[in-house]
Amino acid sequence: MSIRLEHLNYIYSPKTAYEKHALKDICLEIPDGEFVGIIGHTGSGKSTLIQHFNGLIKATDGKLFYNEENIYEPGYNMKNLRNEVGLVFQYPEHQLFEIDVMTDVCFGPKNQGLSTEECKERALIALELVGLKEKYYHSSPFELSGGQKRRAAIAGVLAMRPKVLVLDEPTAGLDPKGRDDILDQVAYLHKQTGMTVILVSHSMEDIARYADRIIVMNHGEVMYNDAPRAVFAHYRELEQAGLAAPQVTYIMHDLKERGLPVDISVTTVSEAADEIMKALGGKDLGNTAAENRALRNRTPEAGALSNKTLEKIR
Amino acid sequence: MSMIQAEKLVFEYEKRDEDGNVVGTSRAIDGVDIDAREGQFVAVLGHNGSGKSTFAKHLNAILVPTDGTVWVDGRNTKEPEELWHVRQAAGMVFQNPDNQIIGTVVEEDVGFGPENLGVPTDEIWQRVEESLKAVGMISYRHHSPNKLSGGQKQRVAIAGVVAMEPKCIVLDEPTAMLDPVGRKEVLKTVQRLREEKKVTVILITHYMEEVVDADKIYVMDHGKVAMEGTPKEIFSQVEKLKEYRLDVPQVTILADELKRRGLDIPAGILQKEELADCISSMILQDNSQRTEMDG
Amino acid sequence: MIRDITIGQYYPAKSVLHRLDPRVKLVSTLLYLVSLFLFRSIAGYLTATLFLIGIIRVSKVPVGYIVKGLKPVVMLLMITVVFNLFLKKEGEVLVQVWRLSVTTVGLRNAVYMAVRLIYLIIGSSLMTFTTTPNELTDGIEALLSPLNKIRVPVHEVAMMMSIALRFIPILLEETDKIMKAQQARGADFESGNIMQRAKAMIPILVPLFVSAFRRANDLAMAMEARCYRGGEGRTKMKPLRYKGRDLTAYGIMSAYVIAVVAIGRYVPLKVWIF
Lengths: 314, 295, 274
Hints:
- The complex is a heterotrimer of chains A (314), B (295) and C (274).
- Helix content of chain A is 40%, strand content 20%.
- With 314 residues, chain A is an alpha/beta fold.
- In chain A, the strands form two sheets. In chain A, strands 6-7-8-3-9-10 form a six-stranded mixed sheet, with helices on both faces. In chain A, strands 2-1-4-5 form a four-stranded antiparallel sheet, covered by helices on one side.
- Chain A is globular.
- The mean pLDDT of chain A is 86.
- Chain B has 295 residues and is of the alpha/beta class.
- Chain B starts with a strand and ends with a helix.
């Protein structure tokens, strides 16, 4: 079970003055259950790429296999693909339209042809998953705050029970707290349900914290496709591609150049602190490995799910 | 001289029910004192809903205080006859680059402000050219704003404000919707304007790395000023900043973490180089101590 | 894709047409449109065609780009053609299908109507291609300024038009995005009867309106912040002043109108194809 792209090309407005080769010969595989980060500057093709995953954009040529089936074969069930690969667009709250949050979240399941009760049940679970408080379920989506609207919109996709969740810049425009809340919630969801998560972001810091693997897009091509530490090792090239490695990467490289024997591949603050302490030969007072694990596995503030709910979604 | 001065500023929104009747008020700003002197770079930090954007709108008399006073360039924003002077003195750049560009061609947009001020035609052209040069967008003067990147659009918006020759520029989260490249572009432009035109800059943001060179920082929370001071003073209080839901730069967190673990690092480190210097000086010390012992 | 609509958009190029005073272009476009209905002969059509080709060449706007602008009106064209084709009862019957018949007059009218419509669209889009919306509204404002005397808010109307034009591409892009997002949630815009399809538009229209209002709000604030207070006391960056070429253009335009009327009436080239 996976998404696999073979020599995928996409050209915008072909044979016109605005022709643009947006994706060039992309070969990728995203196996089930992975947490993948896609990063790239604006116009690098990352948004175009993810819209291929659920067939919203059809490749100019090349193949896209979902669960070993080429989705471009005639007769392929596109509707089913869209049910399995949920796509949350940038600023998803701009797509809310129903009279209340509950009804809006039900829109997806309703389109899947489920009964009203089933829609409701799924919507309730989805709203619980994104940590939106119950008192908002029957408010108009337009009355919520920015962060809450975004949760409601993400719930709208989760209610369709996708096996793969693709999020395009889910934290754009949110403040740090809102950003951490959403990302923690997504990470928690990933861990609890084993859902594949594809996270598109500008922020290296965010991706470093959550992703197992990073795909770097540059000018419509895959520039790197590797574990975070391996990708950040190319921090100079990343900079040229209009991206930046996490700040700690720079500090560690700087220190190494100045003769401090540190491991330059660390990606988070606490790992960096460990390294520096070790290199300075000081007695380390912290217990970072454990802290780090706790950080990764921290339960989102909005609350863990009840066992009953978890059972239902697994 | 004070360029911007808010004294015991209070602003209340009216809450209305479905029929439009007032059912109560909600305080967005609650007794704020903020002061920016001529030529200063003052930053106002705060998370979404802290009241910082509401504050920004007072500097341009888009909102007027419910209570307290705001002076811009020595004029009270509450006085209707001062309105146009206030707006000309304090130019404003907003968050969404698309929703503040009026012209369909870059140069026409930059000319919009001076046109409203009744500036003679020849001078408009001169101002447009100068401001586009100041933000580095002169080569795009005939382009449509729709084809520009987010950072470029914001620079055009800044040029539009500069062309009005304000004494002070207020930027209300100008980078919130941009990618890292765009953010850098905008910040560099603002810095250049500060150096070349000596304008007062008020930057409203929630990104702390954008305010490391500020002369003064105010942190807002729940409509009040929660902290004020120089960047050093503010950034040395990492725990408190996190409490106010601000994005503390990784360097500052790392420095704080190392300090907690017993390293002798000064509080309030803001720059990568600063931290690296600090740590490498420790290696040198370490080495010299060792040499002494060996000797 | 919706984004491909080019009609009403400005096409940046450096041509004499681009540099002309917008008032000249507005008046000329109007004259051209009227002229299309002043003749009924092949010779007239030939003159109008030659003139249009000439203008297209001068404008430096690629022909492909112009043709693309016709795409969205194809439906309208078809309807007009069909109406003209079947509703004219005069003339010789060419084809008879059930109770509908196509006559020579019907066919001729249909072809002429289609040509007229196409020229009408090309003619007016040439104006928008070569005139920035700001110039266009300046032109309209200047031409309509006499109406100020009878208290028509000419400046405000012109400003509204210019803003509308600026936001059309943004809102089109937004529509595209919203459609895709709703499709990702399983929305189906393609199947079903008219009622179902109309209902399927709600998830697009509501967010679009919300967004348009949000933008309008932001924009109003941004305009106020830049000291906008209506037309009074406002100077212009690009004030309209007639230059030599504008007068020449008026001359050429008058010559064309006279020619087309004269040729259409008096040149005996009345070779009907049918």
